[in-house]
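Need fresh eyes. Consider my entry:
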Amino acid sequence: MAQFTLYNKHSAPPNSDSTRVDCEHVPLCSINDVQLRFLVPDDLTEVRQLCQEWFPIDYPLSWYEDITSSTRFFALAAVYNLAIIGLIVAEIKPYRNVNKEDKGILPDSMGRSADVGYILSLGVHRSHRRNGIGSLLLDALMNHLTTAERHSVKAIFLHTLTTNQPAIFFYEKRRFTLHSFLPYYYNIRGKGKDGFTYVNYINGGHPPWTLLDHIKHYASKVRHTSSLCAWMAGRVQQVVRWLYHKLLTRFNFIE
């Protein structure tokens, strides 16, 4: 697993130059050259510019203010030579507070007391893609949500455009599974676009059971019961044979 360093924005990362270098002109030699840190209010302008380049959705200014200042969000930046080259923004919330279209992620019995993690954004600078930056950011979130303190978080989910094949490939490779199709979920430049919901279950979480799951469960119970009955019948047969042998021996019916 790649190693990384968490540091504060206002102190230079280890072995770094104090002069910021345009990341488009600096090759990423190793994932170990990347540091991770949480966003701070001073990042607002830079993050806003990056998101406008990366994503087709126009986020309001208040959103950038929230993710760079509120502890409500897990907002982590990947930094290389003092420049942000990737970021992930997620929110942890009670399952009962998710939107209607996401209510089927967990079983009702589990959802009453469970939390979920929702990935709002995950992006990497175009010149540094396919270098493991996205995986590094996602791993940091997964590690955060699979600690003992976060055991109540039973799933991580996200929405993506149905046409965003690179994102779909990335998440499926990271064991996210397609949960639902959301017609006209996005409004991009005045046009409705379809979306997918992808889910990764953690900390013992699982999706609601389907009819097929119930059939498989009861079939397993029947097989287990049948095996148990066969075992008990064998034991009873052995006991009967033992008693029969004892009786014959007692009355001298055998030599």
